[in-house]
Amino acid sequence: MPAGAAAWQGVKENPGIGAEDHRAVEIRPAQARDIDGLVIVEQQCFNVYYYAFYTLDRRDFEYYLQDADTLFLVATLDGRLAGYVLGPVETWREPPAAHIDSIAVPPERQRAGIGSHLLHAFRQQVCERGSEIVTLEVAPANEIGLAFFTKHGFRKVHRLRNYYGKGLHGLLMAAPCDLGHSETDTKQP
Ligand SMILES: CC(C)(COP(=O)(O)OP(=O)(O)OC[C@H]1O[C@@H](n2cnc3c(N)ncnc32)[C@H](O)[C@@H]1OP(=O)(O)O)[C@@H](O)C(=O)NCCC(=O)NCCS
C-alpha cells in the first residue's frame, strides 16, 4: 500500500451498491492514471446551477497533482475510483489551516460512507502536517453537502456573497482539524 494510504473494511450498505460490492475502500494519494475517472466524477457531481456549472477539468487535476502544497486523495473500491478530496495545506496561515477545494463521490457510490472516509483521511493527514483547522466553501443550495459537512463538525463562519456568480452565494465553513473522537460516523468496522 502506498505511503499515506489507508483501507477500511465495511462500507455502509447502499442500495446503489449490491451486497456483492460490499468490499474494502482504500484511500490513497491521487495519481496521473486517476485523471480520466476524476473528470467523469466531476461532471457527475458538480455540473449544477448553484456552482455555475463549473467543474474541474483535466488541467486543474494535473495542477493539483504536481502542487506540493496540495493534499489530493482518492478512494477506490476494488480498484475502481470511488471518490476524491483535494485542497491546500496552508501552514503559513494563522492558525495553520488546510482548505478543502473539492470533495466528491460518484452518484452510484454515495451514501455508503465513502465521503466520510475521505474527509476523515484528509483531516487526519493535514493534522499530521500541522494544520489546526480545516475550512471549505459550500453553496447553501447544496443541501446534501451542507448536511454532510455539518454532520462532520463544520460550522458556518460567514456568507460569501456572489461567490459562485451573480446571486450564487457561498458559505465559508470551518472545523477543528482533529475531531478524531467525533468521527463516529465513518463506519469503521
Ligand atoms: C457530499 C458528498 C461528498 C458526500 O459523500 P457520501 O459518500 O455520499 O457521504 P456519506 O455516505 O459518508 O454520508 C455521511 C453523512 O452525510 C449526510 N448525507 C450524505 N448524503 C446525504 C443525502 N443524500 N441526504 C441527506 N444527507 C446526506 C448524512 O448526514 C450522512 O450520514 P448518514 O448516512 O449516517 O445519515 C457526496 O454527496 C457528493 O459527492 N456530492 C456532490 C459533490 C458535492 O456537493 N461535494 C461537496 C461540496 S465541495
Q: Describe it for me?
A:
With 189 residues, the chain is α+β, with helices and mostly antiparallel strands. The protein has one domain (6-186): 3-Layer(aba) Sandwich (Aminopeptidase), CATH 3.40.630.30. Helices cover 24% and strands 32% of the residues. It is built from four helices and nine strands, in the order ββααββββαβαββ. Strands 1, 2, 3, 4, 5, 6, 7, 8 and 9 form a nine-stranded mixed β-sheet that branches. A hairpin with a 2-residue loop joins β8 (155-165) and β9 (168-176). The radius of gyration is 16 Å and the shape is globular. It starts with 5 loop residues before the first strand and ends in a 13-residue tail after the last strand. Bound molecules: coenzyme A.
Would you identify the CATH H-level superfamily? Gcn5-related N-acetyltransferase (GNAT)
CATH class: Alpha Beta
Give the N-to-C terminal Cα separation. Answer: 19 Å
Shape from CA axes? globular
Write down the domain tally.
1
For the sheet with most strands, the description reads: 9 strands, mixed
Order of helices and strands: EEHHEEEEHEHEE
Question: pLDDT under 50 segments (min length 5)?
Answer: 1-10, 13-22, 181-189
Q: Name the beta content range.
A: 25-35%
Output the CATH topology: Aminopeptidase
Bound molecules: coenzyme A
CATH architecture: 3-Layer(aba) Sandwich
Mean pLDDT rating: 87
Range of helix content: 10-25%
Helical/strand content category:
alpha+beta
Radius of gyration: 16 Å
